[in-house]
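From the pipeline queue, job 12 of 40. The input is one protein chain; the requested action is below.

Action: predict structure.
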Amino acid sequence: MRIVFVKNLNVDEVIKKNVLNGDGKILLKAGTKITREHINYLKSSMIVFVYVEDEMLSDVRIDFEMEILKEDVLNKMPRMFDEIVSGNYVESTEALKNVETLVDHIIEEGEVNTNLFEVKAYDDYTYIHSLDTSIMASFLGISLGYDENRLKELSKAAILHDIGKIKVDNELINKSSDLTNEEFSEVRRHAIYGLEILKSAKGISEEIIKGVAEHHERVDGKGYPLGLSGEQISQFAKIISVCDVFTAVSANRCYRDRFDPKEAYELILSGSGTMFDPVIVNKFRETFYVYPLGCHVKLSNNKEGYVVKQNKKFPDRPIIRIIEGDNQFFYEFDLLQNTNVVIEEIIM
């Protein structure tokens, strides 16, 4: 399996992983053989890259069950948000069980099977952003040693972290020009709105509520809405803050292009001790990888290849399979053992 940018996609290549649009709808199913019409369709749908089959990379594993569970949760999220906002305890509790099913799968897998490149494959949309934030938070919770019950509470807090945006004018959320001071203040109120919504709902724990209300607080005290600092901020909020920022900057927005994976990763590291709790940032570094399995990269030694393995605790130093010659001769090149070589770019 390898990643191919749509503009470089060839006819007759076979899709390895379902291609989804921003609403979670399947545009092309895994197993589809690409035609010229498919390529045009993907371009018009603003899809940047797809996964295709590659016999040379057949040992690169992908978690299809995770994709199915994500689609299921995504499809049910609008109703889940509406039920919580309306205070329907029975329906909202039932809807949140879908999040628990996703967490069950993450626990069962016993390993991180996501990465920093594909966590955001779509334009920023509240439900997708919230789902990706929840999945990242779950992996961080595992790294922090959370038990199953606390992990599920964290995941729920993360998926609900932006629920307050329902009460903010959508034109402000998506405004491409600079916000006025009044508009900016209103957008920032989404944390307070989230607090109010969840306090009015039944069956939502205090830890979830704090995670939602405090996810824009900073450890240096310069966040909002309350200006909390250090240990005043709940650990749920500290985890969600890191995941929220990463998934936000990794998405295309109307007012800026998405960050590339290394830029987004370095933004998190640079915020340690100011925006983010250093303990959480360190766990982030130990948990996630910058370049996904199957990613086509160019190295500083002018070689090209595909990411086939990761080096734990070194998220930007994977093992690359270099493929050369007409006979498709290949060998593996470990960036951890060859520190004078770096990844220069993802091949477009």
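Job complete. The chain is about 45% helix and 15% strand.
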